C-alpha cells in the first residue's frame, strides 16, 4: 500500500508545476500567440512521454492480469476527455485570462479549485466531504479573500481614486472570471482520472491526454502561426517553451498518479498550493508586488492543507 505522504508530495509538486506554467505563460504571451505556444508545449510534452514509454516499454494497463490487454474504449474516451478538459480548455481559458489580469491575481482565483473539485467530486463521484475537509475548504476560501485584498488586479485603480482602489478593474474582473472558469475543466480532468480507477498507468494516461490536447490545438496553432513572425522566435524562447513542457509533464504524470491512491476531495485541498507557489514565483520572476495580505492569505491556505489531510494521517498512525 502506497503511503499517503507520497501522494501528497505528488500533488504538491504537480501544483507547483501548474504555477510555473502560469508564470511562463504570462511571460510568453508578449512573444507568441496563445494557441501556438500551448500547442507547441503539448507537442514537446507528448514527445517526452512517448520517448519514456518506448525506452522503458511501459504498458498501458496498470493491472498485472491485463498487462498486455488493449485499452478499453471507455478508458480511451476518458483520457481524450482529459486532453479536452485539463489540456485544451483549461489552458486556453487560463492564458486568455492572463491577458487581462496579473499572474498573482490568477493564482489567487485558482484557490477556488479546492471547492470546485470537492463539489464536483461529491456530485459526480458521490465522495463525501468530511468535517475536516469542509473546514479546510473554508480556510482556503478565507485565504482567497485575504489574498485578493493585496493583489495587483484588485488595486488597478489605486492612486486615482481612494474608493476605486479597492475595486477590481473591468479588465481584471474579465480576466479573473476566465481563470475561474478554467477551474471547471481542470476539476473534470481529476474526475476523469478517478473514473479510470487506477486501471491505466500514469505515464501512458499523461501521454494520451497531451497527444489529444495537441491534436485539438493544432488547427488553431497553424492558423495563428501563419502570420507569426518566426524570426522573433529565438532559441531562448524555445528553451522557455521546453521548460514549460517539463512542468506540464510533471503535473499530468504526478497528479494522475496521486489520484490513483487518494480521493478527489482530498486532492482538491492541494489546489491551495497553486496560489501560494504562483504568488511567490510572480514576486521572484515577474517582480509583481508581495503584500502582507498575500502572506496572511497563504497562511490560511497552508492551514487548510494541514487540517484537511489531518484526519487521513490520523487513521494511518
**Biggest sheet layout:** none
Instruction: Determine the oligomeric state from the structure.
Output: single chain
Give the count of helical stretches: 12
Q: Would you tell me the overall average pLDDT?
A: 84
What's the total number of strands? 0
Helix content: over 70%
Shape: globular
Q: How far apart are the termini?
A: 14 Å
Q: Which blocks of ≥5 consecutive residues have pLDDT under 50?
A: 152-168, 312-317
| H/E element sequence | HHHHHHHHHHHH
Q: Taking Cα atoms only, what radius of gyration do you get, to the nearest Å? A: 19 Å
Structural class designation: mainly alpha
Q: Can you put this structure into words, describing what you see?
A:
The chain is an all-alpha fold. Helices cover 73% and strands 0% of the residues. It has helices spanning 4-28, 34-55, 73-98, 103-109, 113-125, 131-149, 170-195, 202-226, 235-259, 264-269, 273-285, 292-316.
Features of the shown structure:
globular; 317 residues; mainly alpha; 12 helices; single chain; 0% strand; disordered C terminus
Could you outline the blueprint of secondary structure elements for this entry?
Layout: H1 4-28, H2 34-55, H3 73-98, H4 103-109, H5 113-125, H6 131-149, H7 170-195, H8 202-226, H9 235-259, H10 264-269, H11 273-285, H12 292-316
Helix pairs in contact: 1-9, 1-11, 2-3, 2-8, 2-9, 3-7, 3-8, 4-11, 5-7, 6-12, 8-9, 11-12
